[in-house]
From TrEMBL:
Alphabetical keyword list: Amino-acid transport, ATP-binding, Nucleotide-binding, Transport
Any Pfam family matching the protein: ABC_tran
Entry keyword ATP-binding: yes
Protein name: ABC transporter ATP-binding protein
GO biological process: L-amino acid transport
Domain of life per record: Bacteria
This protein's record includes keyword Ubl conjugation: no
Domain ABC transporter: 6-238
Family stated for the protein in its record: Belongs to the ABC transporter superfamily.
Organism: Mesorhizobium hawassense
A single MF term (Gene Ontology): branched-chain amino acid transmembrane transporter activity
InterPro entries hit by this protein: AAA+_ATPase, ABC_transporter-like_ATP-bd, ABC_transporter-like_CS, BCAA_Transport_ATP-bd_LivF, P-loop_NTPase
Amino acid sequence: MSGTAILTADALVAGYGEMQILHGVSLELAAGEIVTVIGPNGCGKSTLLKTLAGLLRPQGGRIELNGLDITNATTRDRLRAGLGYVPQVRNVFGTMSVEENLRMGLFAVPGSIKDRQNSVREILPTLAEYWTATAGKLSGGQQQVVALGRALMASPTVLLLDEPSAGLSPKATSEVFHHIREISNRQGVAVLLVEQNAHKALEISDRCYILAEGRNQIDGTARSILNNPVVGKIYLGAYGEVE
């Protein structure tokens, strides 16, 4: 990792009721970098994001954001501290317009709606093509861009993305990942990405953490993970290298 960590998770333990899913997971994320978390189904990837976002209370460990201890902070307080979260499902308000969806991104954070909308539209220019459309009638890829835009309205320093390519066509997936890279490059936002399409995610990422059975297994640069044939066979489903 290059630069100072703005999000740190140390030895996180979390789960659902008596079912423990995370068994001491740790990670760091610096400004302007994209980090992908991969691993087999059930390894705790989405549980990790929910714990970081405040939807699950950790049973152990510590979370820091921009130097603040947010381990037991509410989701609203984490949003105000600079943490954005885009869940895998139900990530747009289907009966609202695109413009109205973006307005909802400021419900807990003060700011000029017009100024923030203009800023988000500069980062995600395709929003202008369906600005007045009903969000629920858009394609899956377009809805994902709307969800990204709504999260950006609060000017997050860290953005958590859970399976942004879920259900998308290859073309829409490429477009969404392009937008994610632009968000990081242009805004300096740190992105923590959970993604089943590991190859595609790693191509835009700087680093990677691999989880298995709720524990850290391997971490390194995205390129080193992609180019490691053993890792490729076990965790990526194929050998191969980045072109």
